[in-house]
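2024-03-11 09:14:02 INFO worker-7 job=invfold-0412 stage=load source=structure_tokens
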């Protein structure tokens, strides 16, 4: 499994990397703009990501915008909605507006920080990635 961890906080990136490294290769991006470029580059090399952990509040391009760009890119490249990368939004924002917006943009899961290993694994099972 290939996992793209998109998080502007270095400590959070490292923590998620430690939690997920046993499940597959972890690739890191510190903001949405870098993540979107990495996603496109790897897609063109036929290196697909199975899972994206995407923070909402980031500089350059926030998680909601990043998710919309990624899903639009997949659509433009013939990837059906249920065949693309699985996305779990990770954020300190547990308000209904952000949750609704994330699912509207086709994320599969949503976790409120702090991220706990048990919750992360349960979310991965729930969306069918484990």
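2024-03-11 09:14:09 INFO worker-7 stage=emit residues=130
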């Amino acid at each position: 499994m290939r996992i793209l961890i998109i998080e502007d906080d270095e400590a959070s990136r490292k923590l998620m990397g430690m939690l997920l490294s046993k499940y597959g290769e972890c690739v890191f991006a510190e903001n949405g703009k870098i993540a979107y470029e990495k996603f496109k580059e790897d897609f063109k090399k036929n290196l697909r990501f199975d899972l994206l952990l995407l923070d909402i509040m980031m500089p350059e391009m926030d998680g909601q915008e990043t998710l919309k760009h990624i899903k639009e890119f997949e659509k433009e490249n013939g990837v059906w909605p249920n065949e693309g990368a699985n996305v779990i939004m990770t954020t300190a924002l547990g308000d209904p507006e952000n949750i609704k917006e994330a699912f509207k943009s086709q994320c599969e899961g949503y976790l409120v920080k702090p991220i706990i290993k048990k919750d992360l694994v349960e979310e991965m099972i729930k969306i069918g990635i484990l």
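2024-03-11 09:14:09 INFO worker-7 stage=report msg="The mean pLDDT is 93."
2024-03-11 09:14:10 INFO worker-7 job finished
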